[in-house]
Design brief:
With 162 residues, the chain is α+β, with helices and mostly antiparallel strands. Helix content is 58%, strand content 18%. The strands form 2 sheets. Strands 1-2-3 form a 3-stranded antiparallel sheet.
Length: 162
């Protein structure tokens, strides 16, 4: 009976340590053949691009990486949205039996093509930011707190150095 209790206690504690020892690093997984796409994961949960940006926004070490990522994401999102609207507008005219303006669809296709470099630039800057995010931060003097026992004139004293 005692060995069963010990075995159950050991299994529970090992399960707790394995559950709480998840990595907080962000990983990027590349998928696709000709058109490559990156998926970003943190703690085995897939992150959207806006969630990735929010993680970097709240981290003071990521200030230099935050701005190019946000600019590229915003430009890509705006161009993709504009292309969708401009391509679908003439198609709705066709469904309503009206004369479609195919020039709008051409402009929409151009917007879709212009969004590609911004998406690639977002991925490139995001990979650099993830590498910087995953590296451990250098320890500063503000992070060091020392507790020493010193012998002085009045006897033994505990000294805390910041």
């Amino acid at each position: 009976m005692k060995t069963k209790f010990t075995l159950i206690a050991f299994l529970l504690t090992s399960f707790m340590f394995s559950t709480f020892s998840q990595s907080s690093n962000i990983t990027a997984v590349q998928s696709g053949g000709l058109i490559k796409h990156y998926s970003y994961y943190k703690c085995d949960i897939e992150l959207t691009n806006s969630q990735l940006i929010n993680i970097f926004k709240n981290d003071p070490r990521m200030k230099e990486y935050y701005k190019p990522i946000v600019l590229n994401y915003t430009a890509s999102a705006l161009l993709k949205s504009a292309s969708g609207i401009l391509i679908l507008w003439p198609l709705t005219d066709v469904l309503n039996s009206e004369e479609p303006n195919w020039t709008l669809a051409g402009i929409g296709a151009g917007c879709a093509l212009l969004a590609i470099p911004f998406s690639k630039s977002f991925d490139r800057h995001a990979l650099k930011a993830i590498d910087h995010y995953n590296t451990p931060s250098p320890e500063t003097s503000a992070d060091k707190v020392e507790l020493n026992v010193n012998v002085g004139v009045g006897g033994i004293a505990m000294v805390v150095n910041f």
